[in-house]
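[Automated response] Your request has been received and processed.

Submitted sequence:
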Amino acid sequence: MRLAPLLLLPQLPVWMLLAVAGMQLSAAVDARTQATAEAAHSREQLSRMEAALRLTLDLETGVRGYVITGQSAFLAPYRQATAALPEVLGTLREGAAAQATPDRPAQLARISRIETLLERWQSRVGRPEIAVRGRSAQEAAALVARGTGKRLIDAVRAEAAAFTRTEGTRLREQEAAALARLQDLRRTLLEYGTAVIALSVLSGLLAAALISRSYRRVSLAAERLARGEGGVRLSDRGPQEVRSLSAAFNRMSEQLGAAQQEAQGRAADLATQNARMAALGDLSDWLQAARGLEEGGQILARALPTLLPGTRGSLATHNASRNLLVPLLTWGGETASGGAPDGCWALRRGETRWPQDSGFAPACPSGPGGGGYVCVPLFSHGETLGILRVRAEAEGQPLPPELRGTLPAAARQVALALAGLRLQERLHQQAIRDPLTGLFNRRHLEEALASAGAHAATGEPLSLIALDVDHFKRFNDTFGHEAGDAVLVRVGAALRDLAPPGAVPARPGGEEFTLLLPGLDTEAAAALAERLRETVAGWSLSHAGMALGQITVSLGVATLGVHAPAPDGLPRVADEALYAAKAGGRNRVVVARGADVSPLGMFAH
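Generated structure:
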């Protein structure tokens, strides 16, 4: 006999058993479906009866509300219920008639009695009480007092309760029957499933016995190899043909395993490198969008844990004087550390120091540079920017081995970003600062005035002081421009020292100074201007060993909304007050009044 018939014959009992099981399962499913449908119909009947009772309650409460208040608005639920009840009761009657049960006549009779009781309530109670209430509240109350409506409604409720009890009993019986059908179905599935599985296993074992064991081993080994298993080998047993096939299979398995290991290693390296490059590129994009070291530090604090997984550390940068390392950021729960740059061997030697590096260098004299830290000095264009300190996240554990490949690239990226951010800050400061006094220039003053004016629109006061050094041209002609510059620097320092938090001290040009004062009203601004005037008038200056005499300033004060309607007009009004101070004898403060200046606002000296 051929192999195909031999393999098919053991399956015949299984197919016959499946056919019988299918017929019984179909019968069980039909019975379960019918029981479920009957239970669902009973639930619908109960829901319809509940709806009929709610509408009956609407009838009664609507009429009672109208009888009590006399307001026709209370009849709205009565009218809606009157319109809806026939349809609900009709649907209820159709549902009861559709049930082929012994208690169907009793249920239909209860529905008919409910309809009769509701018609009787309408004719004896509802419509009469509505009509009588329209004429007299006392007559309507008398009708209510008879109790006819209550007796009829109670009778309706009693019929509905009997209907509900009967339908509820049937629902429980139907649900019990449905559950029983479900249990029968499960039992049938279990019995026939067990039988089918047993026959299938038996027939499979019989069919497997008909196939050569040697070729079966080859097939199973090939499947294991196809699933990616390594080291799959066949034993050298069986006929010569099988031994030759096993030897060829073993050679192929060895070659394929070596190729898979090499490919996996290269793929892992490539994926790690790609992820690292993508993260560095993303970091570069974000750092280019940063507007200063503070924002750059926030970005790096989020990026470094991803770029250097399994680590914690800190980054410190040089201060402006380059004599101190200032902490910029930490990650992984590390404590911020700064200190003197000379306290780190990595900065002294200009090279990365690893914990396992040997050499003659002891631990760093200061800071956490020793122990398990990697200290990476950050350079850009020959300038040392700071130090990056990294160690393992777990105390006492070695650094991740891949850190040697990731850390240098990350450090270069951080150094370039810090250099760019520092250059950006320097350029920004040069663009908004006066080079002589270090105060803000006219450009920044205009931007600050526009911004402060927008905030002042919410009701916050905004004032401005215009200041000018008295007789400055004559002073320059007498003592020289170097002495004049020294005076301007000193006045700028006084303006900066006396300016309250949030103020904008500026030098628009020449010997003119401006102090923008968000949050200060006219009185506070005038008092501050007077302190400025007194401070300058109290100086005894000298330059190059030569006394410069007394220096005085004239000041004008203006407030937005009081002296100028718009922010851009505030400097002009303050300048007009300043000119009034100079015209009044200099060395004084003048407060503007509207479009003019008032002598009452002068502090004359």
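Summary generated for your ticket: Residues 595-605 have pLDDT under 50 and may be disordered. Residues 446 and 568 are 8 Å apart (CA to CA).
If you did not submit this request, please reply to this message.
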